[in-house]
Amino acid sequence: MADDRRPHLVVFSGSGISAESGIQTFRAGDGLWAEHPIEEVATPQAWRRDPARVLNFYNLRREQVRRARPNAAHKALAELERQGFRVSIITQNIDDLHERAGSRNVLHLHGEILKARSTVDARMQYPLPRGGIELGDICDKGSQLRPDVVWFGESVPHFGEACEIVAEADMLLVVGTSLAVMPAASLLEHAPLDAPSVLVDPEAAALAPPGVFRISQPAGKGVPELVRHWRREGRLWVPETLLG
Q: Where would I find the beta strands (DSSP E) of the chain?
């Protein structure tokens, strides 16, 4: 394996970065959960009780994702990668906005809305370039398809891989997440001791754990400003002028 000594930025993104592209968040006061209680659309029990309702909920979300476009934060991270930095993105988001912006190394902790998967074999996944999932749509083994998302109460299959990526970070950039969803929020604990962590969020002052640098700006402003500094200097660092 080649020795890659380029600066390694690991990005941990949440719904706040996608909200600026028009995708409703779950936990805001006007978010999706306010209209659709978790227990009715996003649990294994809800699926067993009323699969048609669950499929309809995610079909609507899927169309919302297709209409959305990457914003300045997504684009800045992709540009940093194009400039030669090593960028790994771990996202809680099930949309494909990082990929559409041009990022190549994206790990989706909670699945991908633009895929379906078998209800009997999670390895059997099917892209959904158009349309949605309906009752009667089946996998190659004859079982009903479901959204390729991790529901509340299900394990996070890529969490171990995410921990390994964070452990190799030179810097950890957290964007648009409340750090309230476990186990994903514990990822910060796996970063090297000498790797600084930065949180970009309008509520960063209230959300950031001790020892994490705070940039109290929306993702679409704070991330591009950070990236401009990094590209100019050719290194990952925390500009004091952005903190607060």
A: 8-13, 86-91, 106-108, 111-118, 125-127, 145-149, 171-175, 197-200, 213-215
